[in-house]
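Appendix B. One record, verbatim.
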Amino acid sequence: MTDMRISPSLVVLAAILAAAGVISTGLLVLSPSRTLLVSAGFDRAAITPNADGSDDVTNFAFELSRPAFVTLALTDTDGAVFSIRTNQRTPTGDFALAFSGVVDGYVLAGETFEAEVARRLIPDGTYTWTLSAEAVEGEESGQFEGMLTVSGS
């Protein structure tokens, strides 16, 4: 009869591999990877930015699980896009910004100005807001959308 003993080094190696597998699986279960853009939205669906002290401002909040380049824009029913933030590098975390209806500068059809329009109050209307995020490392992106109505501007 032959002696069928398993080498102690093979037993140790098998135990290490088994432990690594259990630990890896446990980490995935206990702390699963999160999407890049965790949440986003305005705290109210309508504003009246007429400086009367009522509903002039809404707060926009979002959460990133990793650093990203963030863009927040409003699109009107005709497809015109109004930018609030464009490709802004943003670290991991929770963020909030107050929005009073002022967006990056734009010029309407038929308007002429001698100077550049840097910021401007958005026209009254119903808008689709879009928050998009591109991971700094470039491997992932995310997007949230919703509706915002502006009146009395």
